[in-house]
Amino acid sequence: MNLLRPLLLASNSPRRKELLTGLGLTFDVHVKEVEEDYPAELKREHVAEFLAAHKAEQYFEDLEDHILLTADTIVCLGDKVLNKPANYQEAYDMLRSLSGTSHEVITGVCILTRDVKDVFYDTTKVYFKDLSHEEIDYYITNYKPYDKAGAYGIQEWIGKIGIERIEGSYFNVVGLPVQKLYKQLVELGFLVVD
C-alpha cells in the first residue's frame, strides 16, 4: 500500500493513531487548539462534518504537499448531542441517559489538500443494557471518561460489559470509520494498493 503524499493527522487521539497504523498507513501528527463550537441549527449528522471541516481549515495555510486528516466524533441521543463531560456529575448523567436505550455515534471526517476537500460521515447505532448505579460509578471513577463524547469509550470496560449490540462500524464508534476512509483515499487517488 502506497500513500502518494505525506499524511498529517490533526488529532491527539491514541485511538485514531492506532486505527490509522492498523490500516498500514504512515503519518505525522500535527495538532492545534481549535474551538469546537457549531451553529445550533445544524442537523446532527452535519455537526460532526462541520467540526471536522472546521478543524481542517485551521491547517490550510500550513499545508504543502500533504494530505491532512481531521475527524470529530459525536454521540446523539435523539436530537440531543452529548459532548465531552466536564465533571463526574455530567458523565454520570450522560451514562444514565444512555442506559437501557440506543443512541447514534456519528464521526465526521475531512480529507484536505491544497486542491481537494472531501468531507463525509459515518453513523453507528449503539445499544446499551440497563446500567446500575454501581457500574456507572465504577466506570467513571476508574476510567475518567472526560475526554470522550457521551462519556464512554466502546473499547473500555463499560463497552465490554454494557453494550449489547451495535449496527454499523465498530471502528466508527472508536473514533474513525476506517473502511470509509480507506475507500475515499483510494477514490481520490491518494492511496494505491500494490
TrEMBL record:
It is found in: Cytoplasm. InterPro entries: ITPase-like_fam (IPR029001), Maf-like (IPR003697). The record marks R15, T73, Q155 as: Important for substrate specificity. Its EC number is 3.6.1.9. Keywords: Cytoplasm, Hydrolase, Nucleotide metabolism. The active site is at D72 (proton acceptor). CDD domains: Maf (cd00555). SUPFAM superfamilies: ITPase-like. It catalyses: dTTP + H2O = dTMP + diphosphate + H(+); UTP + H2O = UMP + diphosphate + H(+). Its cofactor is a divalent metal cation. Pfam families: Maf (PF02545). Nucleoside triphosphate pyrophosphatase that hydrolyzes dTTP and UTP. May have a dual role in cell division arrest and in preventing the incorporation of modified nucleotides into cellular nucleic acids. Belongs to the Maf family. YhdE subfamily. This is dTTP/UTP pyrophosphatase. It comes from Pontibacter populi.
